[in-house]
């Protein structure tokens, strides 16, 4: 077997125990060259599809607006906070210094979630792996020409669904927020996305950071999300993957997720709904992001022809 990103054959098994998260008996091998993690055994797409059908209904449920009433008050307040941060970002002039400040490591307390500083209302943007559709709706609400794509049937019925696989349309920006780690062959996905970008078009990617201290504490520590995450990116592997496909790399920033470190360290005993705990989780993650050790990365690149 070889690394699906750098093609090195020097792989070593790093985690062997069954994972608590999904009780699947999987292991993770690490490429000694680019430090990409690879979930083993490599499942067929068919096997994974049946797992998605069985275990992803909570994601689908969020697509339906009525289900938002199931949110707790804290969840709702946090969502409103994130939406207001993104709204402020979108109101700033494209490519301005203020937009760039929002996409620096130490700004992860105010997460923008994978939108480039250059994005303008004249651009057409595709949310690839749009999930619960919230970003497409938010962008549209603020006057942006946003479209979404995801594999779930429910997504096809959403407004502004774009069937990227059966269309020749090209975009100014493609956003893939925590999507690439779900792919067996991430280089193929990047090549496909490049073919859907206009010359000079921008790619923005968010992925968990396999080399963060969080992931190094053991199989129950990080965002392994087995068996759905089939590869686990390091900064090196992310950079190699993008350059191999011919993207010009602008930057890679450390950008922790909300649930991040402490929750995992305590084996998920911390309730994400407790406001005080949530504050400390986010505060701790922000400090680690400033040190570039956060639990996730965001990559900004452009399509040079
Ligand atoms: Zn590799």
- Stated plainly, the CATH topology is called Rossmann fold
Describe the main β-sheet briefly.
6 strands, mixed
Shape: globular
Tally of structural domains: 1
User: Distance between termini?
Assistant: 32 Å
Q: Are there runs of 5+ residues with pLDDT below 50, and where? A: 266-272
Average pLDDT metric = 85
Task: Specify the structural class.
Answer: alpha/beta
Order of helices and strands: EEEHHHHEHEHEHEHEHEHHE
CATH architecture: 3-Layer(aba) Sandwich
Helix percentage range: 25-40%
In total, the number of strands is 10
Assign the CATH superfamily. Vaccinia Virus protein VP39
Strand content: 15-25%
Hetero groups: zinc ion
Rg, Å, rounded: 19 Å
The total count of helices amounts to 11
CATH uppermost class: Alpha Beta
Give the strand line-up of the largest sheet: 5-4-6-7-10-9
Structure commentary:
By secondary structure, the chain is of the alpha/beta class. The protein has one domain (25-303): Vaccinia Virus protein VP39 (Rossmann fold, 3-Layer(aba) Sandwich), CATH 3.40.50.150. It contains 11 helices and 10 strands. It has helices at 45-55, 57-63, 73-91, 97-102, 134-141, 153-156, 186-195, 213-216, 235-244, 260-265, 275-290; strands at 11-15, 27-31, 37-40, 124-128, 145-149, 171-177, 197-208, 231-232, 247-254, 296-303. Strands 5-4-6-7-10-9 form a 6-stranded mixed beta sheet, sandwiched between helices. Strands 1-2-3-8 form a 4-stranded antiparallel beta sheet, with no helix packed on it. Strand 4 (124-128), helix 5 (134-141) and strand 5 (145-149) form a beta-alpha-beta unit. It is globular. Zinc ion is lined by residues 3, 5-6, 8, 31, 33-34, 36, 237.
């Amino acid at each position: 077997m070889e690394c699906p990103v750098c093609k090195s054959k020097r792989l070593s098994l790093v985690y062997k125990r069954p994972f608590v998260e999904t009780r699947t008996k999987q292991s993770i091998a690490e490429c000694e060259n680019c430090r990409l993690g690879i979930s083993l055994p490599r499942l067929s797409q068919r096997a994974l599809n049946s797992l998605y059908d069985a275990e992803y209904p909570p994601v689908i449920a969020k697509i339906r607006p009525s289900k938002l009433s199931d949110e707790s008050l804290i969840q709702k307040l946090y969502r409103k906070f994130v939406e207001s941060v993104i709204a402020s970002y979108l109101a700033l002039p494209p490519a301005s210094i203020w937009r760039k400040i929002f996409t620096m490591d130490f700004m992860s307390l105010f997460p923008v979630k994978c939108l480039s500083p250059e994005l303008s209302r004249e651009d057409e943007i595709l949310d690839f792996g749009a999930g619960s559709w919230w970003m497409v709706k938010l962008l549209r609400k603020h006057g942006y020409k946003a479209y979404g794509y995801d594999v779930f049937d429910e997504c096809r019925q959403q407004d502004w669904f774009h069937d990227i696989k059966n269309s020749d349309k090209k975009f100014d920006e493609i956003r893939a927020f925590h999507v690439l780690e779900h792919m067996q062959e991430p280089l193929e996905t990047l090549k496909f996305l490049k073919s859907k970008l206009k010359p000079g078009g921008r790619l923005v990617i968010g992925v968990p950071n396999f080399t963060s201290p969080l992931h190094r504490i053991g199989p129950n520590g990080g965002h392994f999300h087995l068996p759905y995450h089939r590869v686990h990116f390091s900064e090196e592997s992310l950079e190699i993957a993008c350059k191999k496909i011919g993207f010009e790399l602008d930057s890679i920033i450390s950008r922790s997720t909300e649930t991040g470190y402490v929750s995992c360290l305590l084996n998920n005993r911390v309730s994400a709904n407790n406001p005080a705990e949530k504050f400390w989780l986010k505060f701790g993650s922000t400090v680690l992001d400033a040190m570039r050790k956060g639990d996730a990365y965001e990559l900004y690149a452009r399509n040079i022809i």
